[in-house]
């Protein structure tokens, strides 16, 4: 039984235009030849539905103005294709995230800020129908036995669905759009970093430093990782490993791997760590892991230490220094159960640079700090600051001003860049400490 059939009918609050939409959406589904429709390109599909609906309405529809008629057609077609009432939000380039918290609460993120939009679903059932349609396009299902789904749409968006009883107030849908990925140069324009830091990071990526990007939820880690990956030279073989593929690298030689959750019977799980281990046998020049969240951290560190320099990953953390503790905790979740000082040894030898991102009160995602990890072997962590954003006192509400301040590079780092034939950008000083 489809989920929508189990939804309490009392949740429905039909109104007249919604009834018209439902009636003609059903009529449209009776009239069209689904196989034929599937063979058409998306734009033709829409045109075809509009034509069939237009003639249906002129034969049996109620009297209405041509404006009402075209609005009705638009809504029904939107509703029958793709993401239904959410289509217009998806078509809006400025929207980066769509959040549906039940049929009447739809929010979007634009320019880093949340706002409520007037879009609504006609009923709880309507929302469930849309959710069913979205997850079925990726051969997944959502129901009481698997009430959470995280998936990537064929068009690239990442979708998360969680329904009752886990979501207390109704089905919750979160869609993250991936507009053309930002390059590092675009991020300079957005105030995320300055030219000097971009130059340094370019040199560090080319010189194959191992880099960790950190930050809170939605701070821009994946975006930054993608932009950094864009600096990898074209002649290197890159393997990307993710839970739900979000990275979009422009290089020619990229192999993309995606983990797989267990199926309903609880089998078939392929975890990030399995993919990291497998990637070692794929002759990668670079391994990029979208985010480390558990025991795979140790595999990643070992990969970085065994000839796969220049690897990049992200971890959720509240500061660059907090990140090292997080890595330690995550690495200790591996079934290898290494003593903590062995893990510290791995982290000290593997990691070169930590880039921490933060979202300011103005919604701008910035590199809050860049730290170089300079400790060796089993020593306690020692970091040296390379860059940080120094914020002026808040002048106006939701306005942030400030500047990026850079420090001379630690000697080891400088030497590594020079050995790799990279220049040290002037902002990072020629002083030898
Ligand atoms: N530097 C930036 N400037 C402007 N917008 C950005 C920037 N970085 C990311 N964004 C936007 O912010 C949203 C979140 O970005 P991203 O997915 O990179 O964050 P994240 O830290 O990886 O999130 P999560 O914790 O969910 O993995 C996206 O919509 C993205 O387009
Ligand atoms: Mg991310």
TrEMBL record:
It holds the Pfam family T2SSE. Residues 82-359 form the Bacterial type II secretion system protein E domain. This is CpaF family protein. Belongs to the GSP E family. CDD domains: VirB11-like_ATPase. PANTHER family: TWITCHING MOTILITY PROTEIN PILT (PTHR30486), TYPE II_IV SECRETION SYSTEM ATPASE (PTHR30486:SF15). GO terms for molecular function: ATP hydrolysis activity. It comes from the Bacteria.
């Amino acid at each position: 039984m489809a989920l929508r059939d189990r939804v309490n009918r009392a949740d429905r609050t039909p109104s007249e235009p919604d009834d018209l939409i439902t009636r003609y959406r059903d009529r449209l589904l009776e009239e069209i030849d689904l196989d034929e429709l599937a063979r058409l390109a998306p734009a033709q599909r829409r045109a075809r539905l509009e034509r069939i609906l237009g003639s249906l309405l002129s034969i049996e529809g109620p009297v209405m103005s041509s404006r009402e008629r075209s609005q009705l057609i638009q809504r029904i077609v939107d509703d029958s294709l793709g993401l239904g009432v959410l289509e217009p939000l998806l078509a809006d380039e400025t929207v980066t995230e769509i959040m549906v918290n039940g049929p009447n609460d739809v929010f979007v993120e634009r320019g880093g800020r949340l706002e409520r939009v007037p879009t609504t679903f006609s009923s709880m059932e309507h929302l469930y129908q849309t959710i069913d349609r979205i997850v079925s396009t990726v051969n997944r299902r959502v129901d009481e036995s698997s009430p959470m789904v995280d998936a990537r749409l064929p068009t690239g968006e990442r979708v998360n669905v969680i329904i009752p009883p886990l979501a207390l107030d109704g089905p919750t849908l979160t869609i993250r759009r991936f507009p053309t990925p930002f390059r590092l140069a675009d991020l300079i324009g957005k105030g995320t970093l300055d030219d000097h830091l971009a130059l340094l990071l370019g040199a560090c990526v080319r010189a194959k430093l191992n880099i960790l990007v950190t930050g809170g939820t939605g701070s821009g880690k994946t975006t930054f990782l993608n932009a950094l990956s864009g600096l990898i030279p074209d002649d290197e073989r890159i393997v990307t490993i993710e839970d739900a593929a979000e990275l979009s690298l422009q290089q020619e030689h990229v192999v993309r791997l995606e983990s797989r959750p267990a199926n309903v019977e609880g089998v078939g799980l392929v975890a990030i760590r399995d993919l990291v281990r497998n990637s070692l046998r794929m002759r990668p020049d670079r391994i990029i892991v979208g985010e480390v969240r558990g025991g795979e951290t140790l595999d990643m560190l070992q990969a970085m230490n065994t000839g796969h320099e220049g690897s990049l990953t992200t971890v959720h953390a509240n500061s660059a220094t907090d990140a090292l503790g997080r890595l330690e905790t995550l690495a200790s979740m591996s079934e290898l159960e290494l003593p903590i000082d062995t893990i510290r040894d791995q982290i000290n030898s593997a990691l070169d640079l930590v880039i921490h991102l933060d979202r300011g009160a103005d919604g701008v995602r910035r590199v809050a700090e860049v730290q170089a990890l300079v400790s060796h072997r089993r020593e306690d962590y020692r970091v040296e600051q390379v860059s940080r954003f120094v914020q002026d006192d808040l002048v106006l509400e939701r306005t942030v001003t400030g500047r990026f301040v850079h420090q001379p590079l630690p000697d080891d780092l400088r030497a590594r860049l020079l050995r790799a034939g990279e220049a040290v950008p002037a902002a990072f000083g020629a002083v030898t400490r």
